[in-house]
Amino acid sequence: MNYNRVSRSPFLGRRRCTYLIFLSFVGSLFLMIWILKGPIWGMSEEAMDMDMYSQKMNSLKKLLQDGVTEDDPNLIQLIRTDFVFLPEIKPYNLKNPSLLDYSCGQSGAIDTILNQKEKGFYIEAGAYDGESISNTLFFEKVRKWNGLLIEPDPFVFERLKAKNRKAILVNSCLNIKPQPSILEFNRGNEMGRVWVDQEDKIWVKDMKMKVNVIEVPCFSLYSILLAVNQTTIDYFSLDIEGRELSVLQSIPFDKVHIDTFTVEYLNGEDNYSREIKSFMEKNGYQHVTNLPGNKTCTARDALFKKE
């Protein structure tokens, strides 16, 4: 018998086995977290440069102290420099690159009305990530249009930039006043909304959304169009979760030409959609149809064409 060998307790062996299993579990957990936060599954919110965003907002705040108008040259230059991003030349970075129509029927309806027009210009306000339920990606990919994508949420805007859209990107909300503003915005992914009065707070509560408010820059549509040197638009997709009529009322129709609109009306009452229709008709637009959406796309839009 070898007396130099020390016998081991089965209990100690089980403890070591349990310890190794625990270490393996912890290691796997950290690996999973690293993967989910890494580029494999997309950009995390931490990828946003908050210092740079704060600097841009501070520059805007200084300009607002001077009470600038919507066509002030200093404002237009600030928008161009700090809040406008030029079209991307790199290949698309889409989850579903083989799709042609990403919308809920808006793209097809507008394409028909405009007789399959090539090389037009669009605006999509409420662009979200540039792919999910996009009303304009079809025109960019198939009809070779240029365009303007407007998204106020700075974190979602990083996702939008990562898609490599062939469009001008603007990180702001659309103001309902001619003057620029800094407004509070309740984040909600594709259902984010400005947070300026009790109506907005009631809407957020009714939609059972979390309160997650940040400050965002807001410019009038006309200021943005001056900044990108484009006042002729073939198609304007307006989907900003309940503030559509106010934005429409802010557009100087005597200074810009917009051929067609789709305007979301799902988040308003019936009288709200009637108000939109009445306003558009008074400004020379024919109400063509309402797009009802479907089981997977609940958004409902009213379609208008310049008479």
Write structural notes for this entry:
The chain is of the alpha/beta class and 307 residues long. The chain has a single domain (49-306), classed as Rossmann fold, CATH 3.40.50. The chain is built from ten helices and twelve strands. The strands form two sheets. The chain has an eight-stranded mixed sheet with strand order 1-4-3-2-9-10-12-11, with helices on both faces. Strand 2, helix 5 (137-141) and strand 3 (146-150) form a beta-alpha-beta unit. Helix 3 (73-83) packs across helix 8 and helix 9 packs parallel to helix 10. The chain is globular, with a radius of gyration of 25 Å. The N and C termini lie far apart (105 Å). InterPro entries: EGF_Rcpt_Signaling_Reg (IPR053202), FkbM_mtfrase (IPR006342), SAM-dependent_MTases_sf (IPR029063). This is Methyltransferase FkbM domain-containing protein.
Task: Give the arrangement of secondary structure elements.
Blueprint: H1 10-37, H2 50-64, H3 73-83, E1 84-85, H4 106-113, E2 121-125, H5 137-141, E3 146-150, H6 154-162, E4 168-170, E5 173-174, E6 181-186, E7 193-194, H7 198-206, E8 213-219, H8 221-227, E9 232-238, H9 244-250, E10 257-264, H10 270-282, E11 285-291, E12 301-306
Parallel strand pairs: 2-3, 2-9, 3-4, 5-8, 9-10
Antiparallel strand pairs: 1-4, 6-7, 6-8, 10-12, 11-12
Helix pairs in contact: 2-3, 3-8, 9-10
**What is the structural class?**
alpha/beta
**SSE run:** HHHEHEHEHEEEEHEHEHEHEE
What share of residues is helical? 25-40%
What does the average pLDDT come to?
A: 82
Total number of β-strand segments? Answer: 12
Q: Which strand order spans the largest sheet, edge to edge or round the barrel?
A: 1-4-3-2-9-10-12-11
pLDDT below 50 for ≥5 consecutive residues: which ranges? Answer: 1-12, 29-44
* CATH fourth-tier homologous superfamily: Vaccinia Virus protein VP39
Provide the number of structural domains: 1
| Straight-line N-to-C gap | 105 Å
